[in-house]
Design goal:
InterPro entries: ARM-type_fold, eIF5-mimic_regulator, HEAT_5MP1_2, W2_5MP1/2, W2_domain. There is one protein chain. By secondary structure, the protein is mostly helical. The chain contains 19 helices and no strands. The chain is elongated, with a radius of gyration of 34 Å.
């Protein structure tokens, strides 16, 4: 007799009951859209009531999941299909940004609605920026009036810091640029932004996201010039933006020129070639001799590894500058250029502590090399110096300046005797 207990048969493929909260909810914006549209139809054009409705609805509806649907409805009245057209099979409302009045006051009120909503539900911030980026890519699908309203709203939001200027990247889309949509949109957007704040707000925000040098990209490659940009935006009443872009272009050109000069010096190119190249670039970029001598000084002082010991760096600087005296002389033909160079030397010696005691020796060297004139040195000493290290540098220069004055007096008396 078998005393062992017989094993009970087991069922395979056992089914476990899944809790409802663990089931992945299907993405279905239909019900969400109907709730939002119904609420907007009830509040109508009363934007205070719209803000209150959106605030209260966030507790009942899944804003996090359906953020794109929510913003589509608030802007266009319904869900947007790719390209910017409204989806046919969806409920829509006539109360949205695109059907509102096309004036600044109404757009400011709409900006407040979005601002309150995002302040209340902070998690919508990223989704809202993504929505604006998408809407800018859909510009061709909107009417001129819809684009104008969107441009005004975007300008207000940028001015108030509600969104990052990085959203403007969408305007560099090749198709939008080619058809002139980007430039026309930018006119309305920047006009509103400057009207709300000022050009400094625009400049600061663009610099923050590295877009301060990219405004030319609003135009096709064959029109991407400072002259075209300046004319287009000046004619549209945005001279401030034209001046800013021109200045940025000039700064960019100067940085590139400085980099190129440093490379030429590091390679040991002949000075005559460097002078010819620099004069050509100066003419091409319409730079003054004062600007040019500042660029050259920076390039000359940046193309060498300086000794960290104060007693050795002076000797190294004199030897190095002697080598480039011909280049410096070629761009100090005017008194103002000589003064610009003196101020650059003062600033450099002040900012680089190892050079503090080298100032006088550098000036004397450049005087002997005919780069700096007696008149320029005396003008700098008497009235045109910077405040940076003023007493220290003036004290250093005292004996040499006295010698210059005595030499000048002797020269004058000799002339009188000759007469």
């Amino acid at each position: 007799m078998n005393n062992q207990k017989q094993q009970k048969p087991t069922l395979t493929g056992q089914r476990f009951k899944t809790r409802k909260r663990d089931e992945k909810e299907r993405f279905d914006p239909t019900q969400f859209q109907e709730s939002i549209v119904q609420g907007l139809n009830q509040t109508g054009t009363d934007l205070e009531a719209v803000a209150k409705f959106l605030d209260a609805s966030g507790a009942k509806l899944d804003y996090r999941r359906y953020a794109e649907t929510l913003f589509d409805i608030l802007v266009a009245g319904g869900m947007l299909a790719p390209g910017g057209t409204l989806s046919d099979d969806m409920t829509r409302t006539e109360y949205c940004l695109f059907t509102a009045q096309e004036d600044l006051e109404t757009m400011q009120a709409y900006a407040q609605v979005f601002n309150k909503l995002i302040r209340r539900y902070k998690y919508l911030e990223k989704g809202f920026e993504e929505e604006i980026k998408k809407l800018l890519l859909f510009l061709k699908g909107f009417t001129e009036s819809e684009r104008n309203k969107l441009a005004m709203l975007t300008g207000i939001l940028l001015a108030n810091g509600n969104i990052s200027a990085s959203i403007l990247n969408s305007l560099f889309n090749e198709n939008l640029v080619k058809e002139g949509v980007s430039a026309a949109f930018a006119v309305k957007l920047f006009s509103t932004w400057i009207n709300e704040k000022d050009i400094n707000s625009v400049a600061g925000s663009l610099r923050k996201v590295g877009m301060d040098n990219r405004l030319m990209e609003l135009f096709p490659a064959n029109k991407r010039s400072c002259e075209h940009f300046s004319k287009y935006f000046t004619d549209a009443g945005l001279k401030e933006l034209s001046d800013f872009a021109r200045n940025q272009q000039s700064i960019g050109a100067r940085k590139e020129l400085q980099k190129e000069l440093q490379e030429q010096m590091s390679r040991g190119d002949p000075q005559k070639e460097i002078i010819a190249f620099t004069k050509e670039e100066m003419k091409k970029s319409n730079l003054s001799e004062q600007t040019m001598i500042s660029i050259i000084w920076t390039s000359v002082m940046s193309c060498v590894e300086w000794n960290k010991k104060e007693e050795l760096v002076t000797e190294q600087a004199i030897k190095h500058l002697k080598q480039y005296s011909l280049l410096l002389k070629a761009f100090t033909s005017q008194g103002l250029s000589e003064l610009s160079l003196l101020l650059k030397i003062q600033e450099y010696c002040y900012d680089n502590i190892h050079f503090m005691k080298a100032f006088q020796k550098i000036v004397v060297l450049l005087y002997k090399a005919d780069v700096l004139s007696e008149e320029a040195i005396l003008k700098w000493y008497n009235e045109a110096h910077l405040a940076k290290g003023k007493s220290f540098f003036l004290e250093q220069m005292k004996k040499f300046v006295e010698w210059l004055k005595n030499a000048e007096e002797e020269s004058e008396s000799e002339e009188e005797e000759t007469d």
